[in-house]
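On clarity, I found the account of how folds are encoded harder to follow than it need be. Since the whole study asks how a given chain folds, the encoding of that fold should be made plain. The format is easy to grasp once an entry is in front of the reader. For illustration, here is how one protein appears when written out as sequence plus structure tokens.
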Amino acid sequence: MRLRRLSLAVVLALAGLGPGAALGEVCARDDAGRELCLPAPAARIAALSPGATELTYAAGAGERVVAVVDYSDYPPEARQVPSVGSHTRLDLERLLALRPELVVGWITGNPPEQLATLEDMGLPVFYIEPRSFEGVASAIERLARLAGTEAAGDREAARFREGMAALAERYAGVEPVPVFYQVWDEPLMTVNDEHLIGKVLTLCGGTNVFGELDRLVPRLDEEAVLAADPEAILAGGMGEENRDWLTHWERYPELTAVARDNLFFVPPSLIQRPTPRMLEGSRLFCEKLEQARERRGG
């Protein structure tokens, strides 16, 4: 992959620095496989997804975030940062006015043509899309490198790795629980085993009843769920405390998950964003599946 270097003149102009500013090149490879080099750690960062915002703060660079997108609600201080639209439609004029020195883009979530426009204008775009637990930890470390906050980023990455490893050890060899995870309601959607959420299910000793489907986020109908007859159903919802998606399944008392009261709610932000909070969400997943095992009776 070609090495992309933002010209010194562009960086200095964007940052409002003079030619005597202290410099020190920093480089990192993004999740698109491209190496990005900056002549100095980024002091002004635009995070173009809620997950990118969380990862940047986790990397110790929260004070450098000058732009976010809608629903960037964690940590709480991120809510005070100017929004430049949604992750699917960016207000480029507003974004440029905030003079970012680094743009953190979402490979499959941001409009590729808008990210390409930013690059054509000389802005450095670092593409992220963690697809594994290690990918989450690595993203934190790489963002910390680009922001010059390695000490904080390395600590958080180590905490996440150690926590996930502890869960894997604790739930190794447990009795499997057939699970349906609902990621959306209309249309009805789930995840396969290659999805990061699917990997959480496996870590906790769950068997994803739709894990072998080809698409990362397959669409389903109710009949498919009824035929699969999962022992547990886990879902988020439209909001952090909205359990309506689970209430829907109560109309099918013949489902094993309903009969055993194994309808479990997990706040979506804890599991649907590839960030360190996935550790907390994974602990909840594992606890819910342990409850399902306990309800099997003799």
In short: The two ends are 58 Å apart (CA to CA). The longest helix spans residues 150-170. The chain is about 35% helix and 15% strand. The chain has two domains: 4-162, 173-294.
